[in-house]
## 1
Amino acid sequence: MHVRSIRSLSASDADAVIVGMFPGRRGGPGAATVLKGMGPWARKALETAKFDGDSGQVAVLPSTNPDLPAQVVFVGLGADVDLECLRQAAGRAMRALPEKARTVATTLHRMELDGAAQAVLEGLALGDYRFDRYRSSFPVREELSVEVLGGANQEVEAAALAAGIIAEAVGLARDLVNESPSRKAPLEVAERIAAAAGEAGVAHEVWSGGRLVEEKMTGLLAVGGGSHRPPCLVRLEYRPRRPKATIYLVGKGIVFDSGGLSLKSADFMETMKSDMAGAAAVAAAVIAIARLGLRVGVVGLAAMAENLPGGGAQRPGDVLAYRNGKTVEVLNTDAEGRLVMADALCLAAEAEPDLIVDLATLTGANKVGLGPKIAGLFGNDEEAIARVKAAADAAGERTWPMPMPKDYFSLIESSVADMKNTITGRYGGAQGAALLLAEFAGEGPWVHVDMAGPAFVDKAEHYIPRGGTGFGVRTLVELAAGMG
Ligand code: BES
Ligand code: ZN
Ligand code: ZN
């Protein structure tokens, strides 16, 4: 995204201008000039289109005035405008524009809100995302150019830099999730992550084969055994000068979850290329945090494997002995996420960081509990959970704290090992999974984000396109920003 600040629309060469409106068709910042330039018919046209200025509404009108861009996008802001509302309005406007509009002007950032410019630019860039690599009919798209009308230069520059870094990171996470699973073997994903990390000056290491055996990465080896494409662990590290804290970020990276021998049915398998969304978000967040130069040390661990029922697959009944001495009985090979997360959590816990946050598309049960758009928060430290919740709120990512009562451990008691990877009965699936992870996360503050719902959506909304959403990236960046 290229951003420049311009004084007035007469200096613009934009294809479209985005204008905010309040309920009752009251003009938002900068709307008066545009409406006047369009003539009285514009208000009539908005009325006919039933556009009131409520949040969620958008109307694209042509303009015949040569002093205005050819298209005007009116976007409703609603009555109480906050940063997320601006982000959504910008994204919605962007998605309403025809593909070929590559230069857009806007006055949306002129709302009296701290951080308005960054929120608007984030919304535009996030809403501009397309995954069209596999569409033969799509032309190559030029980079998006944004003209910010009458903004203070320095502020706009800083906002553009931050928004650009964040949107690129979210775009990377979305690309990794949307990629055809045939083209994202664990080691291929690791390579792509390593390349992006290298560009951002982030140290990276990939463990595979013998190294995984030496390091006792039991879950990765067991889950990955069913696929010809071997598992790996990606370690990213960003260490600024004099860090104020160190965070470990752990992500579930199942490049495809067929369920393994406990095979999923066809409809549940359809979206299972998204089962590496936690790993993608963690990798993208470390890169963004490094590029932003935040003052926190961050280590990202991505546990990558493919869950297939090949000849080397693990069996229901297998017992896994972990690096931290604990054992898990595998009763359902489709509950593989917790098995690979346990390995990476052992490594994180050994480092005794100030905070561990893990992101995983872990359980269908969490999606049942909170619906498709909200991630569940679990953990061993109320303050840490509240911190992650606050970061997510600020980023506009929806999360909700979930209970994880100790006595529910009985749900995962095994007759042969320390625990089993399934639950007894039907209820408490997300809690059972989280309680298993807790056994590997150590004693320090740890937060588990179950993002099975919001990682992948089948309907586009405001700045979120269909498919991989990049969920978690912005929460993690916000969290690091708050700690550094
Ligand atoms: N990857 C799935 C969880 C999931 C479900 C993610 C829907 C995104 C959307 C996970 O590995 C899984 O299959 N979990 C099972 C566990 C069960 C077999 C104990 C589940 O939640 O049904
Ligand atoms: Zn599974
Ligand atoms: Zn899974």
## 2
Amino acid sequence: MIKNVLSVASEIFPLVKTGGLADVVGALPGAMAGIGIEMRSLVPGYPAILQAIRSKKEIAELDREFFGAKAQLALGEHDETGMMLYILDAPDLFDRPGNPYLDAEGADWSDNHRRFAALSYAAALLGRGLDKGWRPQIVHGHDWQAGLTPLYCRELCPAAATVFTIHNIAFQGVFPAELIEPLRLPPSDFALMGYEYHGQIGTMKAGLFYADKLTTVSPTYARETQTPEFGMGLEGLLHTRRQDFAGIVNGIDTDIWNPANDDVLSATYDAKSLGKRAVNKTALQRRFALQEDQNSPLFCIVSRLTEQKGMDMVLDSIDHIAQSGAQLALIGTGARAFEEAFIQATTRHPGKIGCIIGYDEVISHQLQGGSDAILVPSRFEPCGLTQLYGLRYGCVPVVSRVGGLADTVIDANDAALEDGVATGIHLGSIDSQGLRQAVDRAVSLYRSNPKWQTIQSRGMTRELGWGKAAKRYQGIYEAAFAAKSIT
Ligand code: ADP
């Protein structure tokens, strides 16, 4: 029986978040606790984490030369959530302002290899029993930042089973081969059948090669990543390992995301009182300087502003959206050119297009609670969370038919509408024209209430919590452990 699992990640909600990874890593411990598994998380000692965990116990002083930094491993409980966190407190590596991955200019921190190799190495030390009071049976790493974990585990704690989860295969953490020695990697494994990736060190590749079991965050993405179109060079390896590779759709935290008692909304509501959303819509229209008009369908976007997320397609379609009598409210950050283009669109269409360039958790809730629909026209999407929040909030998702978007949103075609199972709208094709057609379909459905309300309330009654996923992870942990015992 699996009782103890160590989760290793570079971000964790509510302490440090740049995207969906943090939401998942922050929610898993609670979900696993519900089925009798104690999950602790190992995270970097960023300022935000050290400040939030006030009472910490020192577990170990790591040797002075720990990846060129003085480091200490501490254990603390996060009061608000009860999460148990191992913190790699290494000021040289993590005590810096701003983004976990990027400097003030938006470039990768030049020592990211060292920072996240150190995190991965510390995970293996915990796997070996560094904390005398608690030892994991499973070490579960997330994304490239924890990609070297299974390899270090093989070296340091061969008895622990390892699981590796891909949250986005587009970020692979590839570094020059000269770093093999400083990163304490075994030179003999620098090979095709190892962590070598086109002559360099592939940290995500290492995770995929050495972990006992692999997962990603939706069944469709698990299939897609085995193809050249989506696998970004790792499709062959994933296809070879397909027996060990599963797709598990993320849950959402249904307490944090609950329109019935979300105190940042002007009006709370549930599937039976959708009319109350009007108050939230008006508040949003004010906030985003849009015309206060209940009859204009209000689309929102909560997103990184990148091509992955289809933001170029949105920009191409923005005049069309404004001319169709709809409105768009956007919050996001990303590429400077996208940010500027969205700001420019607001001046072209005053009262119809509103945007906030920034990152704000409260506004993201308010957008879900007051907009009529959320646009997620991603080119690829491992799972996607904003469409799940949309379902929960009656903010109808308009999505590309890829990855987790395809797995979680049922298109409102005639048959689905008739059967009452539709929960959103799929783009017919992932391009600007496909987006415009999907927007038009949404506008016309919106205008044909009560169909729209049926779609909204169907989404709101979907089971979106972590229950199902937690059981699937448990199964993966058991299987990883069993595989380890056999070999
Ligand atoms: P990804 O991790 O690829 O960025 P996801 O949909 O999986 O995409 O997760 C994005 C998460 O980040 C969601 O919780 C979403 O609400 C949040 N988010 C994205 N951009 C913003 C923003 N500008 N302000 C607030 N929350 C945001």
## 3
Amino acid sequence: MAEHIFEHNDVQLAYSLFGSGPPLVLVHGFPFDHTMWTPQIVRLQASCKVIAPDLRGFGRSTLTDADRDQGVEMRQYADDVVAVLDKIGVTSPVILCGFSMGGYVLWQLASAYPDRVRALVLCDTRAGDDSDEARQGRLTMAEEVLQAGSSELVAEKLMPKLLAPDTRENDPSLVEQVEGMIRQVPPAAIAAAQRGMARRPDVRALLPQFDMPALLLGGTADAISSPEEMQAIAQQMPSAEFVEVPEAGHLTVLENPEAVNEAFADFITRLPS
Ligand code: MLT
């Protein structure tokens, strides 16, 4: 593994590289960093060049005061991912994989840079925008976390939604791991992402234009992006398939990594070259 950081406009962007083969970009969800993909990196680096960025504010990437105060648009995160690809000289189309907020980022990337996309893998994500209530909840969390100066309250609020009830009951070490990951996120990154997600566009009308091969994955007990919602997205995309991940809630990639890795590896093997 090699971790890298470079200056890009007003921020520092971090990414890690693993393995060799066709390029595969893993875009993490909220409120995590690239390490949420560890089980997939371990498996897929044998057959792919895995590129795992930290979105601005998360992991070792930084953000600006304006990002914190105004929020980071999903398009800005997408531009940053493309900046990472440019930095490492990957200009050919790549397999792009996004988890939840990472999926919101990929919709923007695939719209703005269709030539950079070979295939999409979308895990536990949504295509619609927020209800007024959900939007207000994000803005409130942004204010509260900045005021508190710690991400503890974010862990408390999100944990019940992230993991399936079975996982919460039977896998205390994963519960502890996920809580620990959330607690270490800077409050400014939480505020920036929540304010940005609150403004994210509804892309449902665009789905038929995303005609690249696509794999959609959703946990059976996902309380944030239900399997039904994921399946409905797949039905609108001309070349998409949906796989339901058993024994998992929202955090499929950590709750049932074996099933996710199998689906990933099988999809990648079948991609036209
Ligand atoms: C995520 O996992 O990235 C979040 O659940 C996305 C969201 O808050 O909508």
